[in-house]
Amino acid sequence: MSVRFPEMTYIRLLYISYWLLNPNRGMTTHELQILALHHVVALAPLVTALARAREITWIDVRTAEEFDESHLPGAVNMPHEHIGTQIACLGVGKDSVIYLYCETGRRAGLAKETLHALGFILAANLGGLEEARANADQTNV
User: Which of 32, 33, 58, 67 is 20 to 30 A from residue 91's alpha carbon, by CA?
Assistant: First the structure.
């Protein structure tokens, strides 16, 4: 069982961490709080990504025939040449973790470049199906 914290909990934890790790060097508590809040706001996209980090979308970018032969449980088939136009159908955010795989990693690399160009900054090429299987075992898919 994994514990999921609401996004605001991460922001509060970040604020407390910043406050604890930066001793008051002649600053009032109010000034320190404003400085910490400024850093929290600047890091909000990262905090959001961390909050969603356990929500992984697995995409098999091989052909439908290859996908039918073998694929990871829970993976979605989206051939690499169509990923740019079909990714919106999944409803994933641009800060979502997306793991891509194919047979050798070449097509997954092309798909990753397409997704990065579209703003999906956490898309990753896991290589071939066997490497993806090993990674899936580590992430408990």
Answer: 67
